[in-house]
Amino acid sequence: MKLGSSRSREQHKRRRRITALLLKIALLGGAAFAIGGYAWQTASEVMRKDVESLTARASELQDEVTGLKTELAEHKATQTQLAKQLPNKDEQKILEAARLKIGEGVTPSRITEVVSAATVLRNCDNAPTSRRLRVRTAMSGSDSTTASFADNTITVSAEGAPSLNATGQTEAWFDNTKPISITFMHLNGAAGRAQGSLPLSHAIAVAGYEYRFQVQEGPRSFIVVTMDRCKA
């Protein structure tokens, strides 16, 4: 009897140990599951916030890219517009020549007048006529000389500053180093004026013709005016 009772107690203890072990395992498993679930939930929340943050940042970057593309397009359009306004090589030569003439005393309005009178084709008589013309000064009094062109239909006169001698006294002839003023008058009332340092050029259009004048320095007191007629 004692042997059976002892064996029964031993089996009972063993079952309690096994039950306790299973209970611990169950508790540990539950705790691990709970911890795993919490960790998963926490990680999911962190990932969700990260995704939202990245999505918002991506949207901001997309807006920035769109803005940069717009600025780039506007910049290219501005560059294209500026490129159209910049002179090419031939136009640059014209501008340089105009600046040179302005530096010599030719007025911008005079240069504009000459350019406006230019035509694509020149159908000229190619029979230039030259006349010597005395330049009137303050020392020559009211008397003035003129030169006539185009069958006496165009009259040219000139006025300049008197020259000074070594002692500072005025001479009767004009100072060819200073600007002069040349007036062109047609019988029908058309008129023009060229002002500046020699040489000068001028053109007037009358009745379908363009009269082109070139003015050079001549002998003392004189200038030489050359005219050619072209179809306007």
UniProtKB/TrEMBL annotation:
The chain crosses the membrane at residues 21-40. Keywords: Coiled coil, Membrane, Transmembrane, Transmembrane helix. Residues 44-78 form a coiled coil. This is Uncharacterized protein.
